[in-house]
Design a protein that fits this description.
By secondary structure, this protein is α+β, with helices and mostly antiparallel strands. It contains 26 helices and 34 strands. The structure holds one RNA strand of 84 nucleotides.
Amino acid sequence: MGGAELDNSQSTSNRGTVSGYDAVAIQSRWRDRWQADDLYRVDDNSPLPKWYSLTMYPYPSGTLHVGHWYAFAVPDVFARYKRMNGFNVLFPMGFDAFGLPAENAAIRHGIHPATWTYDNIAHMRKQYDQMGAMIDWSREVISSDPEFYHWNQWIFLRMLERGLAYRKAGPVWWCPNDKTVLANEQVIDGNICERCGAEVSRRDLEQWYFRITEYADELLECLNDLDWPERVITMQRNWIGRSEGARVAFTMENGEALDFFTTRPDTVWGATFMVLAPEHPLVPSLTTEAQREEVEAYVDRSRRRSDIERMSTDDENERTGVFTGSTIRNPITDEQIPIWIADYVLMGYGTGAIMAVPAQDQRDFEFARTFGLPIRVVIQPDGEVLDPETMTEAYAGPGTLVNSGQFNGVRVPEGVPAIIEWLQSEGRGAAEVNFRLRDWLISRQRYWGTPIPVVYCDGCGIVPVPDDQLPVLLPLDAEFTPTGQSPLVSHEAFLNTTCPSCGGEARRETDTMDTFVDSSWYWFRYTSPHEANAPFDKDAAARWTPVNLYTGGIEHAILHLLYARFITKVLNDLGFVEHREPFVRLRNQGIILAAEGTKMSKSRGTQVAPDELVAVHGADVLRLHLMYLGPWDQGGPWNDRGLTGMERFLRRVYTLAVDTAAVIDQPESSIDASTERTLQRLTHATIERVSRDIEGFQFNTMVAALIEMSNALGDLRSDDLLTTGPWRDAIRTLVLLLAPSTPHLSEELWEKLQGEYSVHHRSWPTFDPEKAKEDSIELIVQVNGKLRDKIVVPAGISEEEARKVALASDRVAEHLAGSEPRRVIYVPGKLVNVVA
RNA sequence: GCGGGCGUGGCGGAAUGGCAGACGCUGCGGUCUUAAAAACCGCUGGGGAAACCCGUGCGGGUUCGAAUCCCGCCGUCCGCACCA
């Protein structure tokens, strides 16, 4: 990889050795010892309560950058903290190893995707060890391993049996650059490929889908019970997009019904025309001969336009559309109204048809004005009379129904359920719920993924591959040519097979699965990574899952997290897991930007290579620095100036601990009561702060608390103190509190202080509120809310006493200037405010 | 357009109704040293000799007291964007 040598314990840097603290040497020494001792092996049979911390497994792109450290080192601190607090912790790691970059490397550089992927993994695994991460590599999961993707295929077959996987023809997103179809969730800004940024377009193709819409209601409902960032919950809620309304039927000229969906059934008397999506299947038959040419031209144009153009709101006043020549009877008003087509109506939502109520809907209003169609007001707002002739925009607010037959005078929104009920009794409609969420398109026309385990037989049709013939192996001897076609299509040995049902000639499916299928259940596999007869061992999964804490980037707020929730519910329905939500608590890290505040970029050379920093400063310093940058969910621009501060801090800790260790064999000496209290208070107050901050994911203030403690110890330090009990307690506590953050240094110092190996198996210090209590406080004295004096008083001071002390202050007297205090406010243990 | 987050010294940030700027960086001055580095000590929001005054994007409000709560703007980042 050409980067810095990681393991250079004879480092040319002398920065760490001046005070005797050689971070790099300490680090490699303990890493070797821990590896030899298998310190991070997870015990499935531990009697301790379990804790499952999980970080989204990375794509093996080749090298860990600072962003990977940020995403992994900080949760590693949390996992270590949990372990010291008596939990049996699973904090596994693996690789999201299928996907396009490997295939592109094959096409461009002639390296096989497997070679490229597994070489990258080997390098990255070493880098994770450099980080000091507590990974049990015996549980590693690599999604491109047949022993993993075997179970993708198995889960697919179970879903096929239940009708949750199916094949369907229809318009799908096609990326011309990646030469594959994409799921709706992978298209951003209307027509951009989430992966490569190319402009995507619609194609009519037959593809495989997972029926995620079957779970739409539950996916929405369960969001309320999750300890997730509000932002992510809102994004999922919007993506699922539930809306309540009614399905209503109007009658066409030939007597047949035409259905549409509306959320405003209360405005049905105001429907003055109807609009269909250009792709609506009834368009050809509804089009009259006189209109045919115009309609066909419009349909053709719509098909060509990208969705971004079709849906752009920039030109919302320029409504386009064409009259079909047909009319339809609105059975509520018994009027014949015209049927138009327009591309603001989408085929993919509802029934692809709407009733247009121009007075009450802005889009319909603009359309009516553009084409001179009638407008009838059916909702009058309070204190204002709308006139269709003069209105300049639609009115969608509350009001009273007018021009609405027997419902005149009914209030909006109260009238909506009444009208739905009436429509139902008339046989004209029924309540209905619609979702924005579509089924998940999972097939990809690419090589480096899980083969979809079905065959096509001329006699039997689509035939699933039987379980005992799994896995359908991805052939490694495929030809990579930049044709854009999957190598599987031209791989005769793979393609040609026999039908499992009739034994006749058959062809294999050559599409592979979306890699989001892998990440929709991979965390179950960590609980029993070598299970050979099932995706995972049921008991092991029951023991460890659900995941207590999941961390990762906000960019997966919809895609991965929605799919993972869906597959968990499916696995629950299949009886394989005991819960319906996979991740109890979710936290997102922010993005580390380049120093300039822009995105880190390899090509512009703004990417920060952690290997070089580790070789100079050591992993402990880098871990601390990343925690100290600011709130973890905020990210921010990288700067390396702060590294200096962390290095100084650790050197001070090293000096304090080593000097204490040097006299650790001497008998304990006596200490005066006041210094003893000071040390006790400092120690216990810091335990409290550090514990609270880690629990609350506030790692920046956690580090500040540790720095403050070591600064205070530095100030107190004297030769006599070093051999006293309270000092030794304080130093040992500091080392324990640092252990999750700086695993290498803490182990080194713990050994010198004659602590039992390993510091990482010790218990977290317990906090005694009595010992943390202050004996005296600084009473803040204000006059009219402005600070005027600070008076040291006993911590348990009474209100009466505090008022007396404050009013006796010269400074207060000065500012009162002889006038009598009108009021005195006392905040217990904090301040007195004298109001003049 | 709609929804959400954020806005505090030279910089990263702390304080979520009670001392604004913890902690770190930077900068300046000093100790040690032949010298430098490292380490250590002091200062480091603005004004002022001081008392004190001003100060948390801008304007208003609530409160004894507001960075923090409320209303209205401005800026910035993110999400959604004709979903009937």
